Amino acid sequence: MQEENLEAVMGLIIHGGNAKSNAMEAIQEAKGGDFDLADEKIKQAEELLVEAHHSQTGLLTKEAQGEHLNLNLLTVHSQDHLMTSIAFTDLAKEIIDVYRKISA
């Protein structure tokens, strides 16, 4: 795998993983009643997902331009990691809203 592609794949894994971690922390903060911090953690998660999307977009652009990326387990893992992080962040927002309504 070319080094530039490897950096993009690792960007998906790193940013996606950090986004998921922030989303989990956001749930814990909401559970404890600190909704300001929960909202900040979700904001951070969303910013990290944007960074991950930039990495993904770079890979997709190259593919569309005819520069094919050799698929391997690391590439598949990076996409799986990103999609899981997106889903988890979306669910975290819903869980935080439930905690917010319960505490009101």
From TrEMBL:
It comes from the Bacteria. The modification Phosphohistidine is found at H77. Keywords: Phosphotransferase system, Sugar transport, Transferase, Transport. The keyword Oxidoreductase does not apply. The keyword Transferase applies. This is PTS lactose/cellobiose transporter subunit IIA. InterPro entries: PTS_IIA_lac/cel (IPR003188), PTS_IIA_lac/cel_sf (IPR036542). SUPFAM superfamilies: Enzyme IIa from lactose specific PTS, IIa-lac (SSF46973). It holds the Pfam family PTS_IIA.
